[in-house]
DNA sequence: TTGTTTATTAACCATTTGGTTAAATTTCAA
DNA sequence: TTGAAATTTAACCAAATGGTTAATAAACAA
């Protein structure tokens, strides 16, 4: 039975990911996770101790997806406009793959801000933002783009990329588009959003 | 004791709003709401029957704030650029006043999409979007703005306005700004976002 | 083969939670 | 003043929930 180890563990993680990302920490049920994984509830505790700990693992995972490549692209040594195109395309591709993830992460950070503050302390954020800031300032000085703070630009980029996924059910209703067409719209945004941003800032 | 009616009712609603918007439907506790309102838990049920019904009331309220003036501005008979400025300013002003509201609404719509679909059936969305669409198409034909679908433009406007409030705790961490400075940034966005959008679409 | 370790389960347990009930208190009209 | 109606509370209740335990089954090393 020892070979089943990884198998069971993985099944639990999969079920937990599904439960937590769709219902949140307080909405998810351990019994549900066990049922979905096709095992006894006690086994979930056997493998992962408590709900909190299991949740922390899932959060870590999803949080990683959220920020993994962003820093890399942001600090890459490429022209600004190209960088914007890459960040947007990367964001939207990742979000298309894991559509529940951003709302999940946002929720849990909102409900427990201390968690993220801790995690961020170990990341070289300042380096990333300072690097980006420098590139922006240079472009402004060159007269290639209008005057804008790198913080605000970063917020705009992430807003345009992420929000349509976070608010998907609402936007689908307002705009009265079905699932298929919404996905098509998101694919179009991979290019159109970058163009939108570049047009907004170039002189 | 009859005069206390409105008073108690309002105290409960206030406590419920606080609980639901900060912790969501499943995270909020009836006992908590009663305690915050300074009354017995049974009284909450006396006035509002069930948790679900109380929640529905609060949701209705918050949802109203979300969409109240938007339709009015969108269908107003004013130039496009002016309209964009007004929508953004209105959005950000409202969101500054009720910062928990958008995440709350988005969450509950995500968890129960049927609810919003029902509600939207009674609203003249098609009229609003068709109206806006027409204005966009005219501006494109005039050559005043670039070619863009009104849906995508609407998504961009709402993304830039709402997302910074939805993701506030996360953005505060990433950008390492404190509460006061974040508020200042949001105030600046009332104008800068409109300019950003107009620059993005004008020819 | 056998004894030890690991994995899995059924049955429980304590706590929390939404909700109810019956009694007490207050209000107010007659 | 009195009695019915409305308001408020303390004490409960049943169901749900996270978690534990003790026993069983499987895996494996000797």
Describe the structure.
- The structure is a homodimer of 203-residue chains.
- Chain A is an all-alpha fold and 203 residues long.
- Chain A folds into two domains: 1-49, Homeodomain-like (Arc Repressor Mutant, subunit A, Orthogonal Bundle), CATH 1.10.10.60; 65-201, Tetracycline Repressor, domain 2.
- The first copy, chain A, is 83% helix and 0% strand.
- The radius of gyration of chain A is 20 Å and the shape is globular.
- The N and C termini of chain A lie far apart (66 Å).
- Chain A binds a DNA duplex (30 and 30 nucleotides) through helix 1 and helix 3.
What fold name stands as the CATH topology of the largest domain in chain A? Tetracycline Repressor, domain 2
- CATH-derived architecture of the largest domain in chain A: Orthogonal Bundle
Please estimate the helix content of chain A: over 70%
Number of strands of chain A: 0
Oligomer: homodimer
The most extensive interface between chains reads:
A-B, 53 and 54 residues
Largest sheet, strands/sense/barrel of chain A: none
Instruction: Measure the end-to-end span of chain A.
Output: 66 Å
Mean pLDDT of chain A: 91
Strand content of chain A: under 5%
Low-pLDDT segments, ≥5 res of chain A: none
Q: H/E element string of chain A?
A: HHHHHHHHHHH
Q: CATH homologous superfamily of the largest domain in chain A?
A: Tetracycline Repressor, domain 2
Tally the structural domains of chain A.
2
């Amino acid at each position: 039975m020892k070979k089943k180890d990884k198998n069971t563990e993985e099944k639990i993680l999969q079920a937990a990911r599904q439960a937590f990302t769709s219902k949140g920490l307080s909405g998810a049920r351990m019994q549900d996770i066990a049922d979905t994984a096709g095992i006894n509830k006690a086994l979930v505790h056997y493998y992962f101790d408590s709900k909190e700990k299991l949740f922390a693992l899932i959060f870590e995972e999803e949080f990683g997806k959220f920020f993994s490549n962003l820093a890399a692209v942001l600090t890459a040594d490429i022209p600004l406009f190209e960088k914007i195109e890459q960040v947007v395309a990367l964001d939207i591709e990742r979000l298309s793959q894991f559509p529940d993830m951003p709302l999940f992460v946002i929720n849990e950070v909102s409900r427990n801000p201390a968690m993220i503050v801790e995690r961020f302390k170990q990341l070289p954020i300042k380096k990333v933002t300072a690097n980006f800031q420098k590139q922006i300032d240079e472009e402004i000085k060159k007269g290639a783009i209008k005057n804008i703070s790198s913080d605000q630009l970063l917020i705009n980029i992430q807003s345009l990329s992420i929000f349509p996924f976070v608010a998907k059910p609402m936007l689908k209703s307002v705009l009265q588009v079905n699932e298929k067409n919404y996905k098509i719209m998101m694919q179009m945004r991979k290019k159109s959003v970058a163009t939108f941003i570049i047009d907004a800032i170039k002189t």
